[in-house]
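Q: I'm writing a short methods note and want an example of a predicted protein-small molecule complex. Could you take the sequence and the SMILES for zinc ion and return the bound structure as tokens? Please keep the output block clean; save any remarks for afterwards.
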Amino acid sequence: MTVKANENEWFKKHEILLITTARRARERKEKETRAKVEADEAKKLRELHWMHCPKCGHTMETVEKYDVKIDFCRACEGIFLDRGELEQILIAQDSARKSLFRSIAHALTGGKISKPDD
Ligand SMILES: [Zn+2]
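A: Understood, no commentary inside the block.
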């Protein structure tokens, strides 16, 4: 191989390396920019919609029901439950229901019905 051919080969390899490095840096920067735009958009949406009724858009307030803090809209009387809150309410209601039925059974039978195991 001639000196000129060696030079051309060296430049070709290094140009490919430079181009690849520049492309990776550009792709990384684009990915960071997209992530920042998405995070900014998510933040904007959160600020715009936080504690606003998904049905009518009015401001919601937090109220406590069955020892669970739920979001309540005074305008349309809608409620919004966070993850797990429905289960908490159902469990609380189930205990209250069992307690109520036990009280009624106790009152009607004069305490002759034994308390079932839960
Ligand atoms: Zn509402």
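A: Remarks, as requested: The beta strands are 60-65, 68-73, 79-80. Residues 1-50 form one domain.
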